[in-house]
Amino acid sequence: MGVCGSLGSRLSPEEVEAIRRYLADAREALDQLRFLAGLPAEEVARDKTLRYSLRYAIILLVEASVDAAVALLEKLFEQPPSSYRESFLRLIEAGVIPARVGEEMARLAALRNAIIHRYWFIDDLRALNEAARGGIKAVEEFLHRLEECIEEAARGEAATTQYAP
């Protein structure tokens, strides 16, 4: 049985539902980020509401993704990760997500930290470019892998794909 399927006996239906809600929140933020990435960069740079929307979408996306990751990792390792970045790196270690996805998610976590802790230094165009460059595809795959993992756990099935660290 793979890592996700083995979670089935350790995740309660309430925990599975909570993780699904985190992933739904992350998808909603991803939709907003995708919308913003489709706008001309100059428009986003000029419009304070769009810039704030960009920042909030990144924050919400990362926090919801980390909440889902932590819920899984606490069951896998019985110890929560010590940072947002570590959440993604430990999912790589566990074989839940591929390394390139985890590394891109860790970069988005660093961007979230910069927004939260030093927001007055944020270059919104750089943030938009980073998010649009590889972030959106990585987030899509991250969410897909975690959704797949949760479904396998809920059914108690073997993982369909496990990635080597």
Automatic annotation (TrEMBL):
<keyword id="KW-0378">Hydrolase</keyword>
<dbReference type="InterPro" id="IPR052379">
    <property type="entry name" value="Type_VII_TA_RNase"/>
</dbReference>
<dbReference type="InterPro" id="IPR037038">
    <property type="entry name" value="HepT-like_sf"/>
</dbReference>
<comment type="similarity">
    <text>Belongs to the HepT RNase toxin family.</text>
</comment>
<protein>
    <recommendedName>
        <fullName>DUF86 domain-containing protein</fullName>
    </recommendedName>
</protein>
<keyword id="KW-0540">Nuclease</keyword>
<keyword id="KW-1277">Toxin-antitoxin system</keyword>
<dbReference type="Pfam" id="PF01934">
    <property type="entry name" value="HepT-like"/>
</dbReference>
<dbReference type="InterPro" id="IPR008201">
    <property type="entry name" value="HepT-like"/>
</dbReference>
